[in-house]
Amino acid sequence: MNWVAAAKFGANMASRIGVGRTAAVVLTFALVLLRIWDPPPLEELRNRSFDFFQVVKPREIQSWPVAIVDIDEESLKTLGQWPWPRTTIADIVNRLVNLGALVIGFDIVFSEPDRYSPGTILNNIAPDLDAQTRNRIVSLPSNDQVLANAFRGGRVVVGESGVHQFKADQRPPPQQVSLATIGGDPSPNVISFPAVLGNIPILDNAATGRGLFTIRSERDGIVRRIPMVMRVGSVVIPSLSLEMLRILTGSGPIIIKSDQAGILSLGVRGLELPTDRNGLVWVHFGPHDARRYVSAQDVLAGRVPKESIDHKLVLIGTSAIGLLDRQTTPLDPAMPGVEIHAQILENALTGAWIVYPNYAIGVELFVTVVVSTAIVFLVPVLGAVTVGALGAVIAASLVGLSWYLFIRFGLLFDSSFPLLSTFTIFLVLLFTNYLREEAQRQQIRTAFRQYISPALVEQLVRAPEKLTLGGVEREMTIMFSDVRGFTTISETYRHDPQGLTTFMNRLLTPLTNAIIDHKGTIDKYIGDAIMAFWNAPLDDANHTVNACEAALEMNKRLEKLNSEQFQEAAASGRAVVPIRIGIGVNTGRCVVGNMGSDLRFDYSVLGDTVNLASRIEGQTKIYGASIIAGSNTIKSAGDRFATLELDIIRVKGKNMPETMYGIFGAADIAEMEKFRRLNDLNKRMLEYYRCRDWAKALDTIELCRPFEKQFDLTTFLDLYVSRLLAYRTNPPPEDWDGVFIAHEK
Q1: Is 534 helix (H, G, I), strand (E, B) or coil?
Q2: Distance of alpha carbon 676 from alpha carbon 699, whole angstroms
Q3: Could you tell me which residues come within 8 angstroms of residue 609 by beta carbon, excluding any fewer than 6 positions away?
Q4: Per-residue pLDDT tens digits for 68-95
Q5: Of 227, 239, 328, 422, which residue is the least packed, with the fewest Cβ within 10 Å?
Q6: Per the domain annotation, does 88 fall within a domain?
Q7: Which of 558, 388, 536 is nearest to 483 (CA)?
């Protein structure tokens, strides 16, 4: 029962505050959980926004406390391929010590003995050498010993690398640096490796310190954070740069501060390095600068001035492409890895850190909840536009605050998540409002779609106030179509009334679609007839052309339907009557609007143009043309169609005569040589006819006979033959004006 009560309470609250607000509140809670989970796409969005800050305003470099001895391409050309003999490395170390280097760090690991040592070379190239000479050579110090002696002459930190594959003969290194922890054990939060690739013992023991130079890129391959301490087994090892700082300051233990969220900072004497919860520092990158670098060959040749090294931390590494130590950073797609360590040291020595503190997620979630809650309750009250403008101000404020914290205090505040969350909630509110309004529109559609055209329904949805009686006058094109011989067709279904209904649906569907596809509006169905109009309720500047094209398309679809019926009849062995339709089209001024009574009305059209269109359609069975249009339609449609003048008639119920034209095809038919010839002959025949030259008119009709089958003119030509023969016997009165009076509708 408690669950039932809770469900009822939830339903009541949802109805009270609205579905949109309820959905937005639930979404806010879900987004908070999403940020706590922090999936990779969300983390990448945050990181890219932080990258943008560094790209826009990189760290300003005012001094160069770190020098990089670069094993560059020119040094490899001069001194030979890598690895060089350890005696060469020893010479570099000795020269750096003499030049005043404070601490020397190797972004290189010497994991195997030097193959260039005298004893090693002797065994490889002269195994049969006499014992005395052999003993003299073997007694010489090895290259590794020479390098170890050079290490003892200064303060040198050798580099080590964390590896992800543990070998059976590997053992975790001993704890080499003492740690002092404040706030709890940091080990669970520290990045760990199963093993470490270290230096050979003779060099390891001679060095002042040891540090891991492992660089950890983000999921997208960009280096933003570097681990300052790492764990191998239970042993915590400092990074190369942190160990160099420890030795520089003469510190004993490394101080690690932690809280419940993880590591806060790492400290050596006089320096504190703010980190994230895993002990990684965010590198505040400055632009690549050649003044950090000195070439290894120049050091050996004595061409490096003392001020380039004196009282500086020195890193030995490589920028040579072939040695594969290139990393992608927010500022550089291919920065030498050794320079990243140099930039960390510069951050520490100049205090130019950027920090993403552990409490940042709490601040971001608080801002997200506050702004989202404000949007949830303001959108329904103030409206989407006002809240959208307010949201733009809030968004600009959040981005501005994030930017200010970055440039003023070096703090990273993620404005992307609050912006993304609040924008998502805003869209949800808009969407739910849209759904509510769409439901109201659907009620109107459901109520009226059976009575009026779809276009009008949509217009009423946008402006319900149009549901009133009345109309407007405008120029329109009207169409009437009717099935020829429908009585004969329906007779074939006298024992199957349901079949007749199916037949009518099958007939009217393609004809209706042809009208709708050409922007027409179906006014009504009158048995087997269709009434349609153009240029209402929506404006259509090409209404005459669209109406004529619809008429031609109706004939094409009718031909397809006839073909299908003949195939079906042949398969079933039953008789079938081919379907033909007559179409009348007329253009003129009409009154269009809601016609009817206060209780029921329909969107329809009235006027003399409508009546004439109906009369013109009735003439199709007299003149044999499937499509007949009035003179206004033809004048407006121009030369877009193949037309022939049929007659000037005075239809029943009208006093003004009307010129009628048959439409036989589109412009491609009009351009045919045969049709142009036929059009000229037809004009000549009508001219003879109206001039009462019955003989020449009859002769001209005979010249038209070769075209009658192609353009279906038999009925038309036979009509004029019978009329001419009758006039030749019984001529019309002298005041005859060539107008034929139609007594049939």
Answers
A1: strand
A2: 18
A3: 476, 478, 586, 587, 588, 589, 590
A4: 999 999 999 999 999 999 999 999 999 9
A5: 328
A6: yes
A7: 558
